[in-house]
Design brief:
The chain is an alpha+beta fold. It has helices at about 1-20, 135-140, 160-185, and strands at about 30-35, 40, 45-50, 65, 75, 80, 85-90, 95-105, 110-120, 150-155. It has two domains: about 1-25 and about 160-185; about 30-155, Sandwich (Immunoglobulin-like). The chain starts with a helix and ends with a helix.
């Protein structure tokens, strides 16, 4: 009778641990961006900005911008200032759909990646030919920060390891209890 009570107590404690540990291992998320997901821009941006829910660090080649036709923009050195990542860009290419791909390292050390999609309504001009154009309210709204639609995470989240440990511990307990029962019958 005592092993069943001990098993029940251990099971209840482990269940509580799993339930309480889940939220503590959550990853940061991209909260806003410029250009925004799905934006249609009249003029190409000279900088991209990504804002996350917590401070991040950057791996090599953290930001890339490519056009549907494969045109790649030149991306300067990205900088992470707490939860905000900025990178200067030199746009190149025709009016078309573009994809901004990003990679960051979360506080817990996991690598996070994601993509944003936006469209240029006019071909990107060279930096020398670019003149400051007045910004209309429609352009400001198109460039307003919004949440992304696709976020990919790589690596194994911490909660998975907790579940694996709990299942392993339960397996050891069950095997031990069965062996105790078997000895008691002899």
């Amino acid at each position: 009778m005592i092993p069943r009570r001990a098993f029940g107590a251990v099971l209840a404690a482990l269940t509580g641990l799993v339930v309480l540990a889940g939220p503590a291992s959550a990853h940061t998320e991209l909260e806003s961006s410029s250009p925004a997901e799905g934006a249609s821009l009249a003029a190409a941006p000279t900088e991209v900005r990504l804002t996350f829910g917590e401070p991040v660090t950057l791996p090599p080649e953290a930001v890339k911008v490519t056009g549907r036709d494969g045109t790649a923009w030149q991306v300067g050195t990205p900088v992470a200032a707490g939860a905000v990542v900025t990178a200067p860009v030199t746009p190149a290419g025709p009016a078309q759909a573009y994809t901004l791909t990003w990679k960051v390292i979360a506080k817990d050390g996991d690598n996070l990646t994601g993509t944003l999609h936006f469209t240029l309504a006019a071909a990107a001009s060279s930096p020398a030919a670019t003149s400051p154009a007045p910004t209309t309210s429609a352009q400001q709204q198109a460039q307003a920060p919004t949440a992304p639609t696709a976020v990919d995470t790589s690596g194994i989240p911490g909660w998975i390891w907790i579940v694996v440990a709990v299942v392993g511990l339960l397996a050891v307990i069950i095997v031990g209890l069965r062996q105790l029962r078997g000895r008691g019958k002899d």
